[in-house]
Amino acid sequence: MNTEHIPGYLAGANSDPLMVVMAVILIVLVLIAGVFYFKLHAVPEHIAHGKNHTQIQLITILTILALFTHNNIFWVAALVLAVVELPDFLTPLQSIAKSLTTIAQSKEQKTQKKTEDTVAVKEDN
Q: What parts of the sequence cross the membrane (predicted)?
């Protein structure tokens, strides 16, 4: 049987060049899809890092949960937390507490000074 008339892309006696090319293309496409998948999963973390977000640890945990459990709600929650800027309630409350402490200390000093004055007056009499 003469095989000289068979095209080069068909299988010959010892090799199959089309299968080798398709195997390389398949491996490259699988690797590209994996990289894209992991980059997509890291989008909320990248957004949070860029904004220097206060809830970065929670966002990271949610994205890892979404990655391992395949529950998309965790990824959506992480994305919403990364995009939405939560108001800072803690700083005003700390300022109020500090002011109240200062006021209480000044009142204590005033009452202590008054008691010392009254004791000094009574000792003089």
A: 18-38, 58-84
